[in-house]
C-alpha cells in the first residue's frame, strides 16, 4: 500500500479522497491555489503545497508544479479526482515517467476512450450497441452530407476530442447540415485543437443511463449497477439516482453485459463509467466511456455498500479489491442532488460570495459530501459545486420523502443556490413517478417561468 498520496484536486472530491486515504492509513498531501488558501482540503490534509495563483492553468492544471509537489513531499501516488487532469493521458504518462503511480487507467486506455470516434469504433468492433452513425470522423463536406442522408435526420454532430456535450450540434435537415458541420468543426478545432467530428442519428428525449464498471489487474471486470442521470441542464447533471426508474431486471442484465464488454474491449483497470442512451422502447446505445471517478459515484456507493475511492486506491496499489470476495448486490434507492452556487431565477448565473449560514440536514439515510462551511468564501474561478446531498431509502418513495425533508431543512445563506429549485423538482408529479428523460429539466424550467409570471400578475 502507498505511504503517501497527493490529491491533485480541490473542493468536495479532494476531501472525499483524503477521507479514503486516512481510512487506509495513508498520509495525504494536497496542492492548492492562492484562492483556496482557506479551503477545507488544505486543513484536513497531512501536508499541503501552494502551487500557484487562482487560474487553473497556473495551479490545478499545471502538470510540472503538481509533479514537483509530489517529488518534494515524497508522494508515491497521485489521485486526480474528476475534472482537471483526471482524463489527461499526458499527465498519466508523466506520472509514470516520474515514478509516481497515477491512480487511474493507463495512458492508452485514457486516449482510447478520450477520442470519442475511436471509442465508438472500438465498441462497434466488439458488438456493443451504438447509435446509428459514422464509424469514424468525417472531414470532406460532401462525404459527410452523403453519410447524413444515409443515417437520416435529425443528426447529432459530435466532436471526437469533445465529450460530455462539448462541441455538439444538432442538424434537423439537409439544408442546415453543411453550415452546422462547419460550425462544429470550427468549434472543435478551437476548443480541442482537433477538428474531427463524427455523426450519429439523434435520439429524441432518451434517458441517460450509465453503468459503473470496475476492472482489477487480474483481468476481472464487473459492473456495479446503473445510475440514471437524465435530469440535467446543458450537460450539467443536477440529480442522479441509483437504480434507474426506467430499468427492469432483464434490461439491467443486457445493459450490464454491454458495459462489461465495453470495458473488456480495452482491458480496463480501475473505476470507469459506460454511458448509454435508453429510448422509450427499451433499446440502448453506447455513447461514451469515462475513465475517472464521477461526481455522482456516491449513489452507487450507498446502494452497493462500497467505498469506490478506496477500491481505486487498492487497485492502483495492486492490492485485492474487496468485492472480488464478497457477493455484490444493490439494495435500496439513492438520489444525489447537486447544490451549486448558481441562481436558478437568473438562468443559473454563478453566484460566488461568502457563505453566512450553512445549516445541514441529517438523520437516517442522509449523506452530505461538501467542503463548504459557514464563513467560507466561494471562489469564482472554479466550478460552482458546493455540496452533494445523497439521500438513501429502502424504496424510492422513502428516498423521495427523505429528500423532501433534507432539502427543506438545508439552509445556505450568502449566495444563491440551486436548493429551492431542487426542492420544487422533488415535488413534481413526473419526477415522483420516475417519468423523466433528458428533456425533463428544460421543460420543467419553462413551466416554472410561466408559473412565476402568472403568480406575479395575480399578485399585482
Ligand atoms: C446524444 C443524445 C441524443 N442522441 N446522442 C452526449 C454527451 C452526453 N453528456 C449527452 N449526450 C447526448 N448524446 C444522440 N445520438 C442526447 C444526449 C444528451 C443530451 C444532449 C443534449 C442536451 C442534454 C442532454 C442530456 C443527456 C444526454
Would you write up a description of this structure?
With 460 residues, the chain is α+β, with helices and mostly antiparallel strands. The chain has three domains: 4-103, Rossmann fold (3-Layer(aba) Sandwich); 132-201, ATP-grasp fold, A domain (Dna Ligase, domain 1, 2-Layer Sandwich); 207-449, 2-Layer Sandwich (D-amino Acid Aminotransferase, Chain A, domain 1). Helices cover 35% and strands 27% of the residues. It is built from 15 helices and 22 strands. The protein has helices at 11-23, 40-44, 63-73, 89-97, 107-114, 116-125, 141-151, 177-192, 249-265, 297-304, 308-316, 396-408, 419-425, 429-433, 440-459, and strands spanning 4-7, 27-33, 47-52, 77-79, 101-102, 155-163, 166-171, 197-201, 207-215, 221-233, 236-242, 270-278, 284-290, 333-340, 342-343, 349-350, 353-354, 357-359, 366-370, 377-378, 385-393, 411-413. The strands form six sheets. An eight-stranded antiparallel β-sheet has the order 13-12-9-10-11-14-21-19, sandwiched between helices. A five-stranded parallel β-sheet has the order 3-2-1-4-5. A hairpin with a 5-residue loop joins β9 (207-215) and β10. α4 packs antiparallel against α5 (107-114), α7 packs across α8 (177-192) and α12 (396-408) runs antiparallel to α13 (419-425). The longest helix is centred in the last third of the chain and has 20 residues, at 440-459. The radius of gyration is 22 Å and the shape is globular. The model has no long low-confidence stretch (mean pLDDT 96). The structure holds ligand MV4. Ligand MV4 is lined by residues 131, 156, 164-165, 200-203, 206, 208, 232, 235, 277, 287, 438.
